[in-house]
Write a structure and sequence with these properties.
The chain is an alpha+beta fold and 578 residues long. The protein contains 18 helices and 14 strands. The strands form two sheets. An eight-stranded antiparallel sheet has the order 6-7-5-4-3-8-2-9.
């Protein structure tokens, strides 16, 4: 019986090997036709915004068109193709869609595939499906930030870090398996605030006892309260990590009062150390915001300062009611409005007006009533003031409150408190019930106090370290790449102390990736003018910091609303990216 007489036989059926053979034969004869089909002249004849059939014979008419995909973006298809064609005509030999580091590839017309046969034909022609990536898309391609000029120092970063990753061509094995004596000596050096002097280069870091002791000393930090089964930093957004953990104080009000009483004593102890210049700075981490207290002489200030972020209108109003004078350094006012209001007053009234506007602690420039009267003065000149309904006091107040709420939970809501007002802020935070969560996994848990020096009720902790050795591929083969990972609440002085040690141990060459706790990035904002007088740090000699670290911290902040993300040391000079 012939194959045609078999049941279920289809005359159009072909084996896969025969399909491939036919496709190769067809590709040789139709290369010219495909080239003409995708020529710029033919592409211009297509209907705008309508995706054509893929190359190949159409089973219907030759002019048939395919229904456009409703989920496709016209901006990413038609517009991108037009840009590709225009650039290809102007610069056919340049690659405009590839990063600078990639080898230049001539621009090609993207081929679209809509069936299995199209894929087979495309492979026979030596083409591949076009995949849009960030590197290929001109809209999404962003040039990497250029590093700054090399310097022997780098600016102070007041943001808290959650992780540090150092990489170097030199081994980090000297940080592993500290001897009991070296660990004990490092803790003693920290408690006594004894700086360690190291040479510029250490030939054998693993044999240097001073280096290993100084490394242990740099990893120490002080924390209150302490519950080993809870991770108390970071506190913002930590509900998920604390869910399901044992919290015996949640339903026990008496226990909550005891915890808050002990926390108030520790908080007061830290502030007294700060006032006596025996502590350079410390952090108060609540579940909603973080406060950075800095001693007089730090960050270019001659008085104690406190920076709080992020804040809300509610807490700012509560601070006003407590008599705390503060400012919003990142809220810019309208200079034209201020000038206009001043010109409308006589000199004596203008002085009083400026004093009143300067006394406003929430970034207010002038009373709203005077601004509204001026804004409607042109109605009186036209004689239609009676026919136009002016906004009443309630509407003005609502509009004012709306402007104040706009900055809530944003970096612009950062609050700056100076001088004696920081002590009032201390009492406010101790008595403020909203700094402790009323519900959720953090309910009843006091805020976290982080300090570089010991204080009453604090517990000593050390950050976790881990070293890894990997092989990286280079042109000549493989080379060793060493890394050191440090996790925990990494405070600013720790970053600087570690860079001093690694500079000597890694022979002046290493790279570092710094992972920032984002709500604290705004602490790098310059809270004082750039021409302010910087302290020499003599009065802070006993604050527990290395002299070089203290010298860095006395300078005015220059990073603005950004923080250090990458830090590289090459030939004993730093470059960094924010």
């Amino acid at each position: 019986m012939s194959s045609e007489m078999l049941p279920g036989y289809s005359p159009s059926f072909k084996k896969p090997s025969e399909i491939l053979r036919l496709s190769r034969r067809r590709s040789r004869s139709e290369v010219g036709a495909r080239t003409a089909l995708f020529s710029p002249g033919e592409a211009a004849k297509r209907v705008s915004g309508v995706r054509p059939f893929s190359p190949g014979p159409h089973k219907g008419g030759s002019g048939a068109v395919k229904r456009r995909n409703p989920f496709a973006s016209l901006e990413n298809t038609v517009a991108a193709k037009r840009r590709t064609e225009s650039v290809a005509e102007c610069c056919p030999q340049e690659s405009w869609a590839q990063p600078v580091r990639e080898p230049q590839i001539p621009a090609q017309e993207p081929v679209q595939y809509h069936s299995v046969e199209d894929v087979i034909w495309g492979e026979s022609l030596g083409t591949e499906p076009t995949v849009t990536t960030e590197a290929q898309s001109p809209e999404k391609h962003i040039a990497a930030a250029e590093p700054c000029e090399a310097s022997v120092t780098y600016p102070a970063d007041w943001s808290l870090k959650t992780r540090l990753l150092f990489t170097s061509s030199q081994s980090f094995t000297w940080t592993d398996h500290l001897k009991a004596q070296e660990e004990a000596q490092g803790l003693v050096l920290h408690c006594r605030a004894s700086p360690v002097s190291l040479p510029l280069t250490i030939p054998e870091p693993k044999l240097s006892t001073d280096l290993r002791c100084a490394f242990q000393q740099a990893l120490v930090y002080w924390l209150h309260p302490t519950f080993p089964w809870l991770q108390l930093f970071p506190r913002i957004g930590a509900d998920r990590k604390m869910t399901g953990k044992n919290s015996p104080w949640t339903q026990d009000e008496a226990l909550q009062q005891v915890l808050m009483s002990e926390w108030a004593l520790s908080f007061t102890s830290l502030y007294n150390l700060l006032k006596a210049k025996l502590c350079p700075y410390f952090y108060v981490c609540t579940y909603q915001f973080t406060v950075l207290f800095r001693a007089a002489g730090i960050a270019g200030s001659d008085v104690i300062t406190a920076v709080m972020s992020p804040t809300t209108r509610g807490i700012r109003e509560a601070m006003k009611n407590e008599g705390i004078d503060f400012s919003l350094p990142l809220v810019t006012s309208d200079p034209n409005k201020k000038t206009k209001s001043s010109e409308s007053l006589n000199p004596s009234e203008s002085n009083d007006h400026m004093q009143e506007s300067g006394h406003k602690s929430d970034g207010e420039e002038a009373p709203a009533d005077s601004d509204e009267d001026e804004s409607f003065s042109w109605l009186e000149e036209m004689g239609v003031e009676d026919k136009i309904k002016k906004p009443d006091a309630i509407s003005i107040k609502l509009r004012k409150e709306k402007n104040e709420v706009k900055v809530d939970h944003r970096p612009e809501s950062v609050v700056l408190v100076k001088g004696a007002n920081t002590f009032t802020l201390l009492n406010f935070l101790i008595n403020c019930k909203s700094i402790v969560a009323a519900a959720g996994p953090q309910a009843g848990l006091p805020p976290t106090l982080l300090s570089p020096v010991a204080f009453r009720g604090a517990t000593m902790h050390t950050m976790k370290t881990r070293t890894v050795n990997v092989k990286t591929q280079v042109r000549s083969g493989y080379k060793d790449q060493f890394s050191l990972e440090i996790t925990g609440p990494v405070m600013p002085h720790t970053v600087h102390s570690l860079t001093l040690l690694l500079k000597a141990a890694q022979r002046g060459s290493f790279s570092a990736s710094l992972y920032t706790h984002e709500p604290t990035t705004v602490f790098n904002t310059a809270i004082h003018p750039q021409n302010s007088k910087e302290s020499d740090g003599a009065e802070l000699a006993n604050c527990g910091l290395h002299p070089q670290t203290l010298e860095q911290f006395t300078q005015v902040s220059t990073l603005g609303k950004s923080s250090l993300r990458q830090l590289e040391l090459s030939d004993y000079k730093y470059t960094w990216k924010c």
